[in-house]
Amino acid sequence: MVFAAGCILPAMAQNKATDSLRHANQFNYIQALEVMGSILGNVEQNFVDTVSMERLSKIGIRAMLSSLDPYTEYFAREDNDQLKLLTKGEYAGIGSIISQRPDSSVIINSPMQGQPAAEAGLRAGDVILEIDGRDFRKSTTPEVSAALKGLPGTTIKLKIHRPGEKKDRMFTFKRAKIVVDPVTYYSTLGEDVGYIRFSSFTDQASRKVETALRDLKDNHGIKSLVLDMRSNGGGLVGEAVRIVNFFVPKGREVMSIKGRPGVQERTTYSTQNEPIDTTMPVVVLIDGHSASSAEIVAGALQDLDRAVVIGNQSYGKGLVQSPLNLPYNGTLKITTGRYYIPSGRCIQRIDYQKAREGKTAVLPDSLTHEFHTAGGRPVKDAGGILPDITIKQDSLPTILFYMDINNDVFDFITDYVNNHDTIAEPEQFSITDADYARFEQLLKAKKFDYDRQSSKVLEKLKEVAEVEGYLERAGNTLKELEAQLKPDLSRDMKTFKKEITDYLNNAIISRYYYQSGAVRYMLKSDKDTAKAVEILKNPEQYKSILTPKKQS
């Protein structure tokens, strides 16, 4: 099993270091073990307070591993559910994300469509009071999470408080095996353009994508496809190879992995099956949150000139991890290699070894290397996947960030849902001006306060101007600028009405129609998808993008 910086592969030769390396490091290794063991022993025997050795060792292990890179992790026995969710997209429980409020109460945050919590009638915003008769009013999120999980089929009793209601509610239902579907949504865009959005590369990803693709081809007659992997953080490498295989012939190299010299030699991953369609025009959508296996799919299809890539530069995770078994049912997910896509490039953005040495860890564009696709188009390494067509993204106003972190949006939507049994379909829904005005009144009632980076920069400018002797001369100008930059809720609610309304619409739709509804709403005005459809509707333009430019 292989993760691509998020990808997991079988751990084979990586455990067998060469004799020379083993002998060179043997003394330091033994010395480190002795020192660490001695420190733990002395703390256990001599520290003034009683210390949990298990907790202390976990802290030490995780601090040590985090100094290597963000992807090497230790999973204790009780953490293996987290690893299972990462690799298989499944766990046993009620099927809801939970979160902790500023008042320390733990709430139902996002019930998942079709899962026990949603089917039982639990809603986002419900405050968890008791689980199976035990009081959890003052518990932490991990404590509540552990109590919610259990064997599939076992009964759970939840006592909750729903905001706006006087009486608490009791829910009794059964836990289940929760399987998270990696395909968020698929449909047609217009008459003959297919669209598939998927969010992860669990061990079911290729099967789910294949089911969607075959349905679109066989039952909807699509002639081209948009494969949306924006915000897809990756997962299993094998799933990425299988998805590429849908569009390229059997026996084509998709990627290779190189580990530490003398420890893991080059391993090649090629397509193993007959493809589904090698000629259908394909557009892949990516963004800055597309990572690891998502980058393998986008990069391989780009390198093989099999798809046009649209969107924004991807994250740049070119590392793979392997799971190794540890004593007491623990697991070490450790970075064991770098992956290379068909052109030969590695798209890893950060050099963590240089970062550990205090050197510049991100390679500047001027020092990246040029590679070429199968057809001769130039592509670059060391910074993620650069799209063939870049779409400028609209940035959200700062005021929305503060509304979100202060739970103002969440509270408004919870109240809205509790007062509206149904809403229109995602494509037709929007809050009214009256709803928007109520949201503004809610913010004022809560004494909503927010800061902006521009105000902080202005304060710094005033300090510098005073030091340099220009403050008196520029005083009036700076005061006028300060008045313009000072947070003004009514003014900013008018200025950013479109962006705030859109954000509220999306959040409300997610409560009623879940992730698929949010995607349906997004597609109404999504610039990336619109550009993809435009390219797919113009065969000559599509072909020209995949054709190398002639040198003059």
At CATH level 3, the topology of the largest domain is 2-enoyl-CoA Hydratase, Chain A, domain 1
CATH architecture of the largest domain: Alpha-Beta Complex
**Tally of helical segments:** 18
Structural class: alpha+beta
Spans of at least 5 consecutive residues whose pLDDT stays below 50 are 6-14
- How many strands, which pairing sense, and closed or not: the largest β-sheet? 7 strands, antiparallel
Let me know the average pLDDT: 91
Q: What top-tier CATH class of the largest domain fits best?
A: Alpha Beta
Report the CATH superfamily of the largest domain.
Answer: 2-enoyl-CoA Hydratase, Chain A, domain 1
Backbone CA Rg:
27 Å
Coarse morphology: globular
* Gap from first CA to last CA: 47 Å
How many beta-strand runs?
Answer: 23
Number of domains: 4
**Subunit organisation of the chains:** single chain
Give the fraction of residues assigned to helices: 25-40%
GO cellular component, one term: outer membrane-bounded periplasmic space
Family: Belongs to the peptidase S41A family.
EC number: 3.4.21.-
InterPro entries: ClpP/crotonase-like_dom_sf, PDZ, PDZ_6, PDZ_sf, Peptidase_S41A, Tail-specific_protease
Which features does this protein show?
single chain, 552 residues, alpha+beta, Pdz3 Domain, 2-enoyl-CoA Hydratase, Chain A, domain 1, seven-stranded antiparallel beta sheet, six-stranded mixed beta sheet, 23 strands, 20% strand, globular
